Structure formats: C-alpha cells, structure tokens
Amino acid sequence: MPNTKKPEQAKHVSTGVYRILFSFIVFSFVLTGVLTASRIFFLPSLTHVKVAGEERDIQGIRAYHTQLMAQLSDTESRRMDLILPIQNEQYRALLASKQSAPDFLALRQRMQGIASQFADGETPVIFFSDMRLREQERLLEVSGEVRNIGQRSMTVLAQFVEAVQELPLVADVQNPRFTRSFSDEKGDFSPFTILITLR
To answer: Within this chain, do residues 167 and 111 fall inside the same structural domain, yes or no?
Structure first.
C-alpha cells in the first residue's frame, strides 16, 4: 500500500505544478498583451502634455527642456552683463572714452576762475552766456560778453584769451572777433565766442 500512494501523490503534485505553470504562462501572455496594448493605444494619450501651446510627448518635453535651459543660460548671461557691466566690453570702451574725455565741470570752474581775476572790485566784467563741450572733437565753445569796464572791454577780452591759452589743458585757442558795441542797458560791451581746443 505505501508504494501505491507515493506514485499517486507524485502524479497529483506534478499535475498541480503543470496547472500552476499553465496559469502563470497564460497570465504572463495576457499581462504582456495588456501592457503592449496600453503602450500603443492608451499611454500616448495620457502622456502627451500641452506645453507652450503645443502637445508634446516625453521626448518632446525633454527636447523643449534642453532648449529652455539654453535660453535661460543665454538670458542669465545677458542679465549679468547688465547687472555687472564691468565685464562687458562695450561698457569698458565707454568707460575708457569717458575717462579720456575732459571734465566739463572742471573746465567750467577754470573759466569762471579766470573770469573772476578780471573783476573790477566786486563787479564782474566777464559774463558767460553759453559753454559747450564737444567731446568727440575735444573742443570747448565759450560764448559771452565783457561789460561793466567801459571802453576797455576789448582789452580785457584779449587778456582773458591770453589767460585761457596759458592753461595746461589747452592746446589751441581760436581768437574771437574783437568788437565793441554799445547799448543803453549794458553800456560798452564786447561779445565773444571762443573755440578752445583741448589736449
């Protein structure tokens, strides 16, 4: 009896194993079919995302991300040029140009200082109506008039021009027209426009 039970038991075990294996194989095929069908039919519609007005799949999103990162890097670089302009070549060229240009306020103060030397006591005699600096040409154009000094206005104007010529930053002075005019309001006066070439 014990011999007959063992083969029957082995037969039942092998039949059970076959059934389990068959079920597992069928399940594997069904699962593979369902996953394949979902990959082909369902996942594309679920994984497409609308970005920047366009529907994109995962690969499209990755490519778009790479493109955005490149644009971001370029924009940050341009922003840094604006925030820290010292690194920008155009800024350095502009700064060098500015530093080589004459200082208008210093020139104006020098002109006023020279003019104050010719004052008749407390009364100024040289009046400036306009001062223009042409940086590109390195020219200073000074206009005004000499008055409150009587008929010596042309003499004072000539002395003023000589004093301007002696300034170390002046390369050349184009002499003005030496004329004397008269008006009831100003008396004798000499208008002038001087072109000063700077070093």
So the answer is: yes
Domain span at residue 59 reads 2-80
**Number of structural domains found in the chain:** 2
pTM here is 0.52
Helix axes 104-117, 153-165, angle to 10 degrees: 140
Same domain, 108 and 182: yes
Per-residue pLDDT reduced to its tens digit, 79-130: 877 777 677 777 788 888 777 777 888 889 999 999 999 988 888 999 999 9
What is the C-alpha separation between 138 and 93, in angstroms, rounded? 18
- Nearest of 130, 133, 134, 159 to residue 145 by alpha carbon: 130
Cα–Cα–Cα angle for 193, 195, 199, rounded to 5 degrees:
155
Tell me the pLDDT tens digit for each residue of 48-70: 777 777 888 878 888 889 999 99
Are residue 111 and residue 192 in the same domain, yes or no? yes
Q: What is the 3-state secondary structure (H, E, C) of 22-65?
A: HHHHHHHHHHHHHHHHHHHHHHHHHHCEEECCEEECHHHHHHHH
What percent helix, strand, coil does the chain show, rounded to 5? 60, 25, 20
